[in-house]
Design brief:
The chain is mostly beta strands. Helices cover 15% and strands 39% of the residues. The mean pLDDT is 90.
Length: 87
């Protein structure tokens, strides 16, 4: 049986999870990766804005490397929630 890679001091207790909302903008190659506390709320808000008939400017402050972002709701192609593991 193959052994799993386990560096010194790394165990299940050290591994944490965080979630990001990915916003795919039309004609952009990479998604916006937004780290927020209420990721499910942001996901639901963006879905509702995508379905609305009128375009609105969405502006958000985040906790990750992107501190503040804005985009038009009619430019959202897709939205996703991503789970990440980190130490």
């Amino acid at each position: 049986m193959a052994q799993q890679f386990n560096p010194q001091g790394m165990n299940a207790q050290n591994i944490k999870k965080r979630y990001a909302v990915l916003v795919f903008i039309k004609s952009s190659t990479a998604p916006l990766v937004l780290y927020v506390k209420d990721y499910q709320g942001l996901y639901q808000e963006l879905i509702e804005r995508m379905q609305a008939p009128n375009a609105v400017l969405i502006e958000k402050e985040t906790e990750g490397p992107v501190k503040r972002v804005c985009f038009l709701s009619n430019q959202i192609a897709a939205v996703a929630i991503q789970e990440e593991q980190y130490m």
